[in-house]
Design brief:
36% helix; binds 2-deoxy-2-amino glucitol-6-phosphate; Glutamine Phosphoribosylpyrophosphate, subunit 1, domain 1; Rossmann fold; globular; 608 residues; alpha/beta; 23% strand; seven-stranded antiparallel β-sheet; 3 domains; single chain; eight-stranded antiparallel β-sheet
Length: 608
């Protein structure tokens, strides 16, 4: 996810663009740039890293005079974060500049077509095809060139376009990526969201997919996809800047929990082509898979708990032994690794020191390595032989949610891909599972919709000082993550335990002050977990059960029940975590905790 801004007014644009980019930095911050119209030419400055670097390079915009301009802060999707790949991008003839948020799915074909026509590409980005299409189609009519260019694009895009032949205006185009127009007095703006412009105007137009706008200092014209001028609805924003950055949610964590259906969709859909799973540049033949005698998955924290859940699915489908190891342990345990080991590394940040060290250790011993990372161009992404990105977008809250579930989605795809390569699935079963996979964004949305009772439950439980999460098989793996969420944002001691293990000691702790959260969505072992619930109920404990929709037996035993939508049993985990995320969020809120920045924690643990 990137952030774009544009300004057309009666004062220097550069300082305003930089200020807007700073307010969008939470959307992406690996590189940035601005382009300003000055004396009929486009002046361009770009820089790797945070907006502060760009401010320094342009002396807070004072080195770039001009009243019209566009800007971009990048969350890299195609091409590493560096000056060359940073936006804005210029056309070959230097007449056009473009900023873009989204992904152009057909950019490779367009790049080949334009290259054949003599265009030269300088960056690795998908965006550069857009600015050269504008040059290709421009015959003096800027609006026509914008429309012809947009008609060639497949995928998602919020575009800002500047043209040296029209130094008094900008175009903004929206398709499947958010884009708003800020209507001011003597000035007009466009931006990826309200945050960037709310200090200048509270009057905004939310462009719809297919619509585009033409902005000058004194006028905004909105067009439909056919190029007909339409009367836009102008909305008055009542939010303050901080609320706007969180999209109206009180905390980033809640915003990111709610973004999970979109994030999972963005992670899965581009990797299902004609009903087949394609794992980007990761490809192993049947022979290579058969040569693997161990799949080892390593990570830290929540990423490690994804590994624990994925183990069950990969083993069930592939019948290859899967081991999971904490990276901080793996790096020092003289691991038995060789070229027949496939190491899978999970990391949201791609910068976790223990995980980097474990990856290096295993590479040195000959393992083939696959990284699943949320930050493009991060250290782990660069170190691994192959990388599969989770397209969750920047995750701001320290407690991970959407990165966790998108990692889970990638592991589901890996398991299906590997099972198919190993001939473990017939075509009908493979097709069925791929269809179920594509339904997961909707399943997760339903899990969110089913969680409306949680704020009330949090009021009942927030004074708890210690609790257990119990489950069996993949339910237990989910309990590990649910328990970590509770610990790290509400500061309540909690422990995840295999339900069958309680009787081997921990049940000594159970009394009428004990709260247990019993996850029982893995229905093959439901009765066993129910027995464990009865054991602890007999000792006076309070039990909050988590079960699949329609399960009546749980409500007969547990004091409270949260329901999870039914999906393919192997995929349950991705929905089962939702009520646990929300419960920890609302309990922490009741306790007045600093939810987005919990004490003692960091978003990326780059030290040992
Ligand atoms: C999760 O909520 C925590 N913030 C933490 O456990 C995190 O998962 C862990 O530090 C690993 O981080 P990574 O995924 O960026 O490698």
């Amino acid at each position: 996810m990137c952030g774009i801004v544009g300004f057309a007014g009666d004062q220097n644009a550069a300082p305003i663009l930089l200020e807007g980019l700073k307010l969008l930095e939470y959307r992406g911050y690996d590189s940035a740039g601005i382009a300003v119209m000055n004396e009929g030419k486009i002046a361009l400055t770009k820089s790797q890293g945070k907006i502060a670097n760009l401010c320094e390079k342009t002396q807070d915009g004072t080195t770039m005079p001009g009243f019209i301009g566009i800007g971009h802060t990048r969350w890299a999707t195609h091409g590493a974060p560096n000056d060359t790949n940073a936006h804005p991008h210029l056309s070959n003839d230097g007449k056009f500049a473009v900023v873009h948020n989204g992904i152009i799915e057909n950019y490779m074909a367009l790049r080949e077509e334009l290259t054949a026509k003599g265009f030269v590409f300088k960056s690795e980005t998908d965006t550069e095809v857009i600015v050269n299409l504008l040059e290709l189609y421009y015959k003096g009519n800027l609006k026509a060139a914008v429309m012809k260019t947009a008609a060639r694009l497949e995928g998602s895009y919020a575009l800002g376009v500047a043209c040296a032949d029209f130094p008094d205006r900008l175009f903004a185009v929206r398709e499947a990526s958010p884009l708003i127009i800020g209507v001011g007095v003597g000035e007009n703006h466009f931006a990826s969201d309200v945050t960037a412009i709310i200090s200048h105007t509270r009057n905004v137009i939310y462009l719809e997919d297919g619509e585009f706008a033409e902005l000058t200092a004194d006028n905004v014209t909105v067009y439909d996809c056919m190029g007909n001028a339409i009367e836009p609805q102008v909305t008055r924003i009542s939010w303050d800047i901080e609320a706007a950055e969180k999209g109206g949610y009180e905390h980033f964590m809640l915003k990111e929990i709610m973004e999970q259906p979109r994030a999972i969709k963005a992670t899965i859909e581009p990797r299902v082509k004609d009903g087949r799973i394609v794992l980007d540049d990761f490809d192993m033949t049947e022979e290579q898979f058969k040569n693997i005698n161990k799949i080892l998955i390593t990570a830290c924290g929540s990423s490690y708990y994804v590994a624990c859940a994925a183990k069950y699915m990969i083993e069930q489908l592939c019948r290859i032994p899967v081991t999971t190891e904490l990276a901080s342990e793996l790096r020092y345990c003289d691991p038995i690794i060789d070229e027949r080991t496939l190491l899978i590394v999970l990391s949201q940040s791609g910068e976790t020191a223990d995980t980097i060290a474990a990856l290096k250790e295993c590479k040195a011993r000959g393992a083939r390595t696959l990284a699943i990372v949320n930050v493009v161009g991060s250290t782990i992404a660069k170190l691994a032989d192959n990388v599969l990105y989770t397209w969750a977008g920047p995750e701001i809250a320290v407690a991970t949610t959407k990165a966790y579930t998108t990692q889970m989605a990638v592991m589901f795809m890996f398991a299906l891909y590997a099972a198919d390569k190993l001939g473990k699935l017939d075509n009908a079963e493979y097709d069925r599972l791929v269809c179920e996979l594509l339904l997961l964004p909707g399943v997760v949305q339903r899990a969110i919709d089913l969680s409306s009772d949680i704020p009330e439950l949090a009021k009942k439980y927030y004074k708890t000082r210690s609790l257990f999460f119990i489950g069996r098989n993949v339910d237990y793996a989910i309990c590990l993550e649910g328990s970590l969420k509770m610990k790290e944002i509400s500061y309540i001691h909690s422990e995840a335990y295999a339900a069958g293990e309680l009787k081997h000691g921990p049940i000594a702790l159970v009394d009428d002050k004990t709260l247990l959260i019993a996850a029982a969505c893995y229905e093959n072992l439901f009765e066993k977990t129910l027995s464990n619930i009865k054991e602890v109920k007999a000792r006076g404990a309070e039990v909050l059960g988590i079960a699949l929709e329609g399960n009546r037996a749980m409500s007969a035993e547990a004091d409270e029940v949260l329901y999870v939508p039914r999906t393919e049993p192997m995929f349950n985990a991705i929905a089962e975590i939702i009520p646990m995320q929300l419960l920890s969020y609302y309990v922490a809120k009741e306790n007045g905790c600093d939810i987005d920045k919990p004490k003692n924690l960091a978003k990326s643990v780059t030290v040992e």
